[in-house]
Amino acid sequence: MWTGAPTRAAARGVAAIELAVVTAVTLVMAALAVSAYRTYTARQEVRGSLAAVASVQALVTDAFNRTGVPPVSERELPGLPAAKQPHRFIEVVTIEHGAIEMLFGNGAEKSLRGRSVQVTPFETMDGEVVWICGIRPPDVGLYPLGFSGGTNLEVKAGTTVEPRYLPAECR
Q: What pLDDT, on a 0 to 100 scale, did the predictor assign at position 99?
């Protein structure tokens, strides 16, 4: 005859299975949380590094506005040493034809170390300088810096940071 009440052995077995399921779900959730936090941290480090080179961007823009051509390298920017303040995530900042490339060093999140982000200047037909970072393609009507002055430089992709670590404005 069935009384509907589980036996003691059955009750213990169900509790052990429930405990195993809850533990597994908790571990999966914890792994997802750690991964999400690392992605968030790396993205914030990239965003902070982009803000750190704003003064270098201003120097490149100023040099372009004065000469009509982008600076070929760091040597063409007299105010660069003052603008290139050390940053705890960036190991090296280089400039090539106006594009600024930041190489992440040992102070950066592990997923960023040895990788780089590039900030590339473009110009409108009116000569206004527009900066684009990461892997984001230029909008319609934007040309490589110096294009209207006759320069027809190829824009090289210098970003090696994974897209998931780039801020939304750089993807």
A: 92
What does the buried/exposed string (b/e) look like for 82-92 if buried means 16 or more CB atoms within 10 Å of the residue's CB? ebbeebebbbe
Calpha distance 133→167 (Å, rounded) = 9
pLDDT at residue 143 is higher than 90: no
Of the pLDDT bands very low, low, confident and very high (cuts 50, 70, 90), residue 77 is confident
Please state the separation of Cα 105 from the chain's center in Å. Answer: 14
Mean pLDDT (whole number) for 47-60? 90
What does the DSSP 8-state code read for residue 149?
G
List helix spans (H) across 53-163: 54-67, 80-83
Residue 107 has phi, psi (to 5 degrees) of -80, -10
Average pLDDT, integer, range 130-158: 78
CB atoms within 10 A of CB 61: 19
Q: Does the structural domain 42-170 have CATH classification 3.30.700.10? A: yes
Compute, in degrees rounded to 10, the torsion defined by CA atoms 143, 148, 151, 157.
-10
